[in-house]
Design goal:
This protein has 5 helices and 2 strands; from the N terminus they run αββαααα. By secondary structure, the chain is mainly alpha-helical. The chain is flat, with a radius of gyration of 25 Å.
């Protein structure tokens, strides 16, 4: 395939992708709104799993969820752990209560010399991610 043909095919495919991406975004917004309206009509607002009898044959299962997270400041979380232990909670239970998730600071990792990156790479897993694409106007 020559360069002009490849670019024309890419342009056509980009137009098709943009149309699908726009439609998906619109449908996702509609779905989220309808889901919220259904939950409101169910009459439930407390977290948990709730069943609503619809017609004696069908039921709707409504799951109301909460996202719970800790402060990102490790110093604060460490102080909270120490406070739990000081108030009588066993350290083993505190260790089960709080999960410490290692997370690589990619920019900091890339700044390190090869000798340090090699050590990190012993426990590093790299997987391909979904690529992103954007149509940009040329600079004038």
């Amino acid at each position: 395939m020559d360069e002009a043909t490849r670019k024309a095919a890419l342009l056509a495919k980009l137009a098709e992708w943009k149309q699908a991406a726009d439609a998906m975004s619109q449908w996702q917004a509609i779905e989220r709104q309808l889901r919220q309206e259904c939950v409101a009509l169910s009459g439930f607002n407390s977290p948990g799993s709730h069943n609503v009898d619809l017609d004696g044959t069908n039921a709707a299962k409504v799951q109301i969820k909460q996202n719970i997270s800790l402060d990102k400041d490790h110093t604060k979380v460490g102080a909270m752990c120490a406070k739990l232990i000081a108030n009588g909670l066993e350290p083993a239970i505190v260790n089960r209560l709080i999960r410490w998730k290692p997370d690589l600071a990619d920019g900091e990792y890339k700044k390190r010399p090869e000798q340090y990156r090699a050590i990190v790479e012993e426990v590093l897993t790299v997987k391909p991610a979904m690529p992103s694409i954007e149509i940009v106007q040329p600079k004038r």
